[in-house]
Amino acid sequence: MYFILAITLVFASSYGQYSVANQLSSAGTAKRTVNALLVIDVQNCFISGSLALPHSPADVIPIINNLLKTIPFDLVVYSHDWHPSNHISFFNNLNDRRQYIKPGTKVPDQPYQVVTYTGPKVETEQMLWPTHCVQNTGDANLHASLVQTTLKGEIFHVRKGIDPDLDSYSAFYDNQKLYKTELDDILRQRNVTRVFVVGLATDYCVAYTALDANDLNYATYVVEDACRGVTNASVQAQIAYMKRQGVKIIHSNEVRSLISGAALTQLSFSLMLAVLFVFYFTN
Ligand SMILES: [Zn+2]
């Protein structure tokens, strides 16, 4: 009987791993839950530099570090806002792009206002920011306190906003969705099914990344206390919008149970199968 129990446990445990706790893909085939942490733009510019956020952005670093040091994500991706100095999003470049300002629209006289450009690539309403995260400057470096190691799995870095004429809040696409970054390919090649999004800023790059992840059919969780925004009003609006779209908003202390919960479900299913098989063979 013990021999049968042992064989059954081995069988049930491997079967359980690939069944109950796993999600069904759109094609209907079983997929193991694979977890990625997306660390969005935890760069000097947004913490203490040229576009420092107002609500203690450095406070997210120990929270993110704790996740990195204690949760076994299958992979971790760090995104970097990475602009050339002539980037479309900089207020200081408004004059150089004057020929593209749409006639009859308001011309901003300071940063944090929206301009309508007719080109050079596409017509776009562009929020004008202070010059920030210029490529290969200290301002664009990841913050020195941010942990860049994982308990397991691989680490990737994705740079965005590189095209002078396109802004890119999301780590997946530019704002016009003309081009993809390599992020979706990285996640798909490693069979990622679920992403946890942390970093800066909640109402822009975190929200855009999470909404795209959700659209791309990753189960998407934003870890709210591990993010900081630009303004409270737009943070609240984006959180509400993300929830309506199906993005889960959670606290950092829920991440562990979500990941180990799946493992526990796998184990309980395996044990249940084992008991059923033993009962069948011994009666
Ligand atoms: Zn930017």
TrEMBL record:
<dbReference type="GO" id="GO:0019363">
    <property type="term" value="P:pyridine nucleotide biosynthetic process"/>
</dbReference>
<dbReference type="InterPro" id="IPR000868">
    <property type="entry name" value="Isochorismatase-like_dom"/>
</dbReference>
<dbReference type="Pfam" id="PF00857">
    <property type="entry name" value="Isochorismatase"/>
</dbReference>
<dbReference type="GO" id="GO:0008936">
    <property type="term" value="F:nicotinamidase activity"/>
</dbReference>
<keyword id="KW-0662">Pyridine nucleotide biosynthesis</keyword>
<keyword id="KW-0732">Signal</keyword>
<comment type="pathway">
    <text>Cofactor biosynthesis; nicotinate biosynthesis; nicotinate from nicotinamide: step 1/1.</text>
</comment>
<feature type="transmembrane region" description="Helical">
    <location>
        <begin position="258"/>
        <end position="281"/>
    </location>
</feature>
<comment type="similarity">
    <text>Belongs to the isochorismatase family.</text>
</comment>
<feature type="signal peptide">
    <location>
        <begin position="1"/>
        <end position="16"/>
    </location>
</feature>
<keyword id="KW-0472">Membrane</keyword>
<feature type="domain" description="Isochorismatase-like">
    <location>
        <begin position="36"/>
        <end position="253"/>
    </location>
</feature>
<keyword id="KW-1133">Transmembrane helix</keyword>
<keyword id="KW-0378">Hydrolase</keyword>
<dbReference type="GO" id="GO:0046872">
    <property type="term" value="F:metal ion binding"/>
</dbReference>
<dbReference type="InterPro" id="IPR036380">
    <property type="entry name" value="Isochorismatase-like_sf"/>
</dbReference>
<protein>
    <recommendedName>
        <fullName>nicotinamidase</fullName>
        <ecNumber>3.5.1.19</ecNumber>
    </recommendedName>
</protein>
<dbReference type="InterPro" id="IPR052347">
    <property type="entry name" value="Isochorismatase_Nicotinamidase"/>
</dbReference>
<keyword id="KW-0812">Transmembrane</keyword>
<keyword id="KW-0479">Metal-binding</keyword>
